[in-house]
């Protein structure tokens, strides 16, 4: 059977990658294989494996950074915890869009929110004697687990699919009541499933975090990108839902990669409420030289890891945040395109025999956003990754994300513009024709 991409070449590239299973490849490994197949066949894939922004960086940020560079900041070390102007704008940003007041002192830039996650894991799991575990509310971003491994931090995880709404309470408590969970983590909107926690769920998480002195690492990598509501207006409701409304035991990790299309700059933001930032704990001093949480964070962890964020970059983000906070740049409008693409792409898959795996936020359909999840009857996710490669479509298996939905894949919309929709439709239509449901015939590649 002829598939859109030459079968022999796909097979050959998979084999020469030397992986046990292409369906279990990491995002970057799959990315490499697809690059190689594209080079060998001259065919373009519908690239959905990697979550990279597909839009231009905002001119305001670029200009502000150039200006700072011209002023000579490049020769000077930046403060570890950020230049004062940026700290101020991060604090305003959090107030304007989440409606939470956090002093600029404990708002600071990090080298991507990835580094923010790393520092947060490091400091929370070394804060209190006897509390050193992490809990991931999955599905999640695989790299966060890698970070925990690199740090040598033990962790637990569970797939939240079956524990939405009030069921979340007893599930979470079953871990927290053991008393050794230092921090828990989730992303909201969720990478990979694009589910968003409801206020009821955030309240459950916050209340239990206070009860068990567990710190919530709230990863807001897709800040404001639940397009079902308009979160774009500063200081006006609706505000972005956050656990910060329900506990003081949290760390906000905000990325500028997707919401601001600044992934290449590697700059993110961390905001820690005063109560936690100024608190002391019995295990910090041995690790960081101070028992004060905030001091340990900045002068222990941040100093050791990167000693701050590149100086000019901070001014770029600062210029952009100022425009956003002043209502002069609507960052949500600039990335809404992803939601529009998702609506069409999901339809094309569903019309051609695929199903959306994570499809609901309790009673409400999930938003159209940066990612969505798909399955095809009769396939595991790992099998489907490979099978779709023959049809020129690349996506990662949910199995790599801590999901129990092993039939699923994560698809990212960012690199598929409208000009590719027809091609996508042709490819998924052929996929459905070639895999009649209920037939024994399944894997073409095997
Ligand atoms: C859930 C999640 N957290 C963190 C990150 C990393 O963000 P940054 O580029 O700011 O390091 C990503 C990027 O894909 C993500 O999906």
Estimate percent helicity: 40-55%
Overall radius of gyration: 22 Å
Top CATH class of the largest domain: Alpha Beta
User: What form results from the Cα inertia axes?
Assistant: globular
- The counted number of beta strands is 15
Calculate the terminal CA-CA distance, rounded to whole Å. 13 Å
User: What is the makeup of the main sheet?
Assistant: 7 strands, mixed
> CATH fold name of the largest domain, please?
Aspartate Aminotransferase, domain 2
State which percent range the strand residues make up.
5-15%
Taken together, the total number of domains comes to: 2
Record the strand order, biggest sheet. 2-8-7-6-5-3-4
CATH homologous superfamily heading of the largest domain: Type I PLP-dependent aspartate aminotransferase-like (Major domain)
Total number of helices: 16
CATH architecture of the largest domain: 3-Layer(aba) Sandwich
Oligomer: single chain
Average pLDDT, all residues: 95
Return residue spans where pLDDT drops below 50 for at least 5 consecutive residues. Answer: none
Bound molecules: pyridoxal-5'-phosphate
Based on secondary structure, the structural category is alpha/beta
List the defining traits of the structure above.
Aspartate Aminotransferase, domain 1, single chain, alpha/beta, 2 domains, globular, 7-stranded mixed β-sheet, 13% strand, 40% helix, 4-stranded antiparallel β-sheet, binds pyridoxal-5'-phosphate, Aspartate Aminotransferase, domain 2, 15 strands, 446 residues
């Amino acid at each position: 059977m002829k598939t859109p991409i030459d079968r022999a070449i796909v097979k050959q590239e998979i084999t020469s990658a030397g992986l046990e299973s292409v369906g279990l490849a990491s995002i970057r490994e799959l990315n490499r294989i697809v690059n190689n197949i594209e080079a060998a066949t001259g065919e373009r894939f519908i690239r959905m494996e990697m979550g990279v922004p597909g839009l231009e960086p905002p001119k305001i940020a670029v200009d502000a950074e150039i200006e700072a560079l011209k002023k000579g900041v490049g020769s000077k070390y930046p403060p570890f915890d950020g230049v004062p102007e940026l700290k101020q704008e991060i604090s305003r940003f959090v107030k304007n869009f989440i409606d939470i007041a956090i002093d600029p002192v404990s708002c600071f830039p990090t080298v991507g929110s990835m580094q923010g996650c790393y520092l947060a894991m490091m400091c929370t799991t070394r804060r209190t004697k006897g509390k050193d575990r992490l809990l991931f509310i999955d599905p999640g971003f695989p790299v966060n687990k890698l970070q925990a491994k690199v740090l040598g931090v033990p962790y637990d995880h569970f797939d939240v699919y079956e524990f939405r709404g009030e069921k979340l309470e007893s599930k979470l408590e079953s871990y927290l009541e053991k008393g050794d969970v230092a921090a828990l983590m989730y992303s909201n909107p969720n990478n990979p499933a694009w589910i968003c926690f409801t206020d009821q769920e955030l309240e459950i998480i916050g209340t239990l975090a206070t009860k068990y002195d567990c710190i919530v690492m709230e990863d807001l990598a897709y800040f404001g990108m639940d397009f079902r509501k308009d979160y774009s207006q500063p200081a006006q409701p609706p505000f972005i839902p956050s656990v910060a409304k329900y506990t003081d035991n949290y760390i906000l990790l905000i990325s500028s990669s997707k919401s601001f299309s600044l992934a290449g700059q590697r700059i993110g933001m961390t905001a820690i409420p005063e109560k936690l930032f100024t608190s002391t704990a019995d295990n910090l001093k041995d690790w960081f030289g101070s028992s004060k949480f905030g001091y340990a964070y900045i002068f222990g962890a941040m100093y050791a890891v990167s000693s701050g964020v590149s100086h000019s970059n901070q001014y770029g983000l600062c210029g952009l945040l100022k425009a956003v906070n002043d209502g002069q740049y609507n960052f949500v409008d600039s990335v809404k395109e992803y939601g529009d693409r998702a609506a069409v792409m999901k339809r094309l898959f569903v019309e051609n025999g695929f199903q959306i795996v994570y499809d609901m936020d309790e009673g409400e359909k999930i938003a159209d956003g940066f990612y969505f999840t798909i399955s095809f009857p009769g396939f595991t996710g790992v099998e489907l990754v490979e099978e779709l490669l023959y049809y020129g479509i690349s996506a990662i298996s949910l199995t790599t994300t801590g999901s129990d939905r092993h039939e699923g894949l994560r698809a990212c919309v960012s690199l598929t513009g409208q000009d590719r929709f027809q091609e996508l439709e042709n490819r998924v239509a052929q996929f459905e024709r070639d895999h009649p449901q209920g037939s024994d015939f399944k894997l073409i590649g095997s």
